[in-house]
Structure formats: structure tokens, C-alpha cells
Amino acid sequence: MLDIIGIGLGPFNLSLAALLANQPNVSSKFFEQKCGFNWHKGMILPHTTLQVPFLADLVTLIDPTSTYTFLNYLHTQQRLLKFYFLEDYAIYRKEYNHYCQWVAGQLDNLVFDAPVVHVAFIKDSDGFEVTVCEHGKNQIYTAKNIVIGTGSQPTLPPFLQQLAKQAPHRCMHTADYSDSFDLSIIRHADKLAKVLIIGSGQSSAEVYRALFEQQLDENNAAKFQLDWMTRSAGFFPMEYSPLGIEHFSPAYTDYFHNLKPATKAKVVSKQDLLHKGISFATITDIYHKLYERSIANQETHSVILSNCELLDARLNNAPNDTINLTLKQHEQDKTFTAEYDCVIAGTGYRDGLPPCLNTLLPTIEHDEFGHPHVNRDYTLSYRSNLDNSKNSGKIFVQNQETHSHGVGAGDLGLGVYRAGCIVNQLVGKQVYDIESLKVFQNFGVE
Q: Is the backbone of residue 130 left (phi > 0), alpha (psi -120 to 50) or beta?
């Protein structure tokens, strides 16, 4: 029986796997349905960087002496001096992905092309029975504990979900942009194609910038019209002052976890700009590109609108599969319609436990809002009136606990801390000093 099985291999479970590499007394396996490590492949665009410094790699903030640090990666790639001269804390998203692949290639407890299809309690015993489809054949493993690292999933409004199924090259989430957008499919012989970006977060801004750079041909003629709309009050920068980003700390996690569920819901709803805005550098870059194109009062071939909510979308099957949209400008209280050839929506991500846990869901305690109850140590709570509540096997979650632990759930830097907390529990002692990540603020009164 393994000590722990990981389900999913994004940065958070990869971080845990890397930290466990130094713990020979803890046996583990991590399963991923993809054929290899690729983090947000659809959003690895030119010029894009992480929104956290390079120190928020897989291990540094909890174990800076690890061989799996980003700096050691640069050293092995003979790129350390180049990075030094770059004098920039930001990691290009493409290089971060390659760094993670470099770490994954050194770990022998990772299994790719192996979706987990079912998890159940072991009957009359502690732990879990995990069914994995490895290369098309089901295999059964047992483990004392499991850790969920399947990440948050891209989400679209219902009417866009239907369109994305009908015409995936005409309607897509920003997460699928690189794989699904194809200008040749939507172009017209007699008029400009029209593309609409929806949303005011970083992903929408990056897609807008990428398409803006492709918009003109070699004669500076527009190949398509590019518009950008959001229901938000404006295209605002993400909060990135030092005291603001201290919300991504163990101290704030402690504070938030002790709030009442109703208070937590209200607090989260007001914190969008801590993690959903656009980086100031990206906004500035886009503005420079708009300004440069407009020199001599040239047409930008782009309309940017805020306060506009998308209410409905329907596919017009004749003659060119265009999309008819209904939108509303809230401050003017005006509803209007528009027609586009492609809609790319940055409508966010949602938390959710994977389907392989469906059998266990009735045994897991939920709060008044229907969210799984997540303890401070990142474990799910079992319902106390069930026989299996006595099972000592733990279900850890990574990036499924915004509702219980706050905005830091999806933060790469705080993810390393969470992985260290999990390792300490598996080993049964403090291997990693999880008390060392101090900040200046007190978030509550004693």
C-alpha cells in the first residue's frame, strides 16, 4: 500500500512530488491523464510571463536548497548568467513550462497517460482503492491517503458552452485559444471577419494583444476587426502592491479560514482585483500598441467597451456560421445586438472535485453553500454520522479551497507552502519549516 496517490499533475502536485523525492520513507505515485506535463498549453503566447516572481517555483519558498529550484534549472540549462543580465523577476510562461517538464523528467513517481477513473474506500480497512486506466488497461492501486491536484476548470456561460460544442473554432474559452483559433476558418472574401474578446482579466488581455499583433498584413491592411468587451466597470490593473499581495501568505490563510462561511463568501466576492485583474505591464503594452497604430489618425480596427454584459449568443448557420450576440450596457441601460465570426471568452475557472470521486462525495461534509468542508490542514472532512468517517485515510486538496482558505488557493508561491504542510503530515513531523514564511501585516485582532 502506498502512503499517498496524487490525482492530476499540475504545478501543485508536481511541487508535492518534488518535495517527496527527498522523503524515501514516504511511498507515492502521481497519475495524470495527459501524455506529458503541459501547464495551460493554450495560453503559452508570445511575451507572456507568470504573474509571480521566479522564487515562486516548485520548491524554493519552502526548500531553497532543493535541486529542483528554478535557479538550478537555469544552471543546468547554461542560462543562469543570461537570466542574471535580464534583471527581471518574471519568468516567461514558456520557460516555466519547460522548467516544470525538466523537474517531471527527474521524478520516478509520476505516471502520464493514466487517468484515474474511480476512487473508493477500502472495505473494512483504512485507505483508498484507486482504479487507474494505464495505457488503456485498468490497474488498481491502494493508498493510505490521496491528494487531488486536478486544478480548476475553464468555464463558459451555458449559451456559450453550447456554441463551443457546435462550432469550436468560432466560440472558445481563452484556455483553448492556441489550439482552436484559426483565422482561415472565419475569414470572408468580401468583408472583414470580426473577432470579439470577452473579459477583463489577464488571459483576455493576453489574447487581445496576441491577435492585435497579427491583425495587419504586410501592406498594413487589416485582416479582421478585433473588439474587446467586458461587463466590468473598466479594464483595471491587478492589485500588486507589496501589502496587497501579502494576502497570498500563510498568515492571511489562517485569518481567512477562521472566518464564518457567510463572511468568507462576501470577502471573496470583493477580492477580484487581487487575482483577476490585468497586470499593469500588459495594459501599458496594449496601450502603446494602440497608440502606435493610431499615428497619423490611422484606423485601429478595434473597439474596446466596458460595462457591457453578454446576455445571449446564437449560431447563425447561414450563410457563414456567424454568431449573433445580445449585450447590455448596464450604466446606460441599453440592450444591443452584434454579429461576430468568432468569440473568445475569458470567463474564468471554477473549482470542483474530479468525477472519479463521485462515489465518495456523499461521505464528505459540505458547508451551507454546498462547498466541500476543507480543514486548515487541506484535508476534506467526512460526515460524522457515517461508518466510513472512522477511516483514517485523508483526502488532501490542492487549489480546491478558495472558499475556505481564501484567494491564495491558486497562487503558485503559496502552493509550495501547502505542499510542505502535506509533506509534514505524511512524514509525521516537521520536515519543512512552514512557520518561516512571515509577513508584516496582522490581518485580524488577537
A: beta
Query: Which pLDDT score, from 0 to 100, does residue 273 have?
Result: 86
Q: Where do you find CATH 3.50.50.60 in the chain?
A: 2-152+351-427, 154-238+276-345
The three-class DSSP label of residue 393 is: coil
Neighbour-count burial for 150-178, b at 16+ CB within 10 Å, e otherwise: bbbebebeebbeebbeebebbbbbbbbbe
Cell 462561511, residue?
A: 261
Question: Among candidates 364, 420, 416, which has minimal Cα distance to 395?
Answer: 364
Q: How many CA atoms lie within 13 A of 160 on its CB side?
A: 24
Angle at 390 between CA 389 and CA 395, to 5 degrees: 60
Distance (Å, rounded) from C-alpha 278 to C-alpha 333?
26
Q: What is the DSSP string of 50-85?
A: EEEETTSSSSTTT-TT-TTSHHHHHHHTT-HHHHHH
CATH superfamily of 2-152+351-427: FAD/NAD(P)-binding domain (3.50.50.60)
CB neighbours of 428 closer than 8 A, spacing ≥ 6? none
Q: What does the pLDDT read at residue 76? A: 98
In angstroms, the CA 210 to CA 215 distance is 9
The CATH class of the 154-238+276-345 domain is: alpha beta
Q: What is the pLDDT of residues 341-361, one digit of tens each?
A: 999 999 999 989 999 999 999
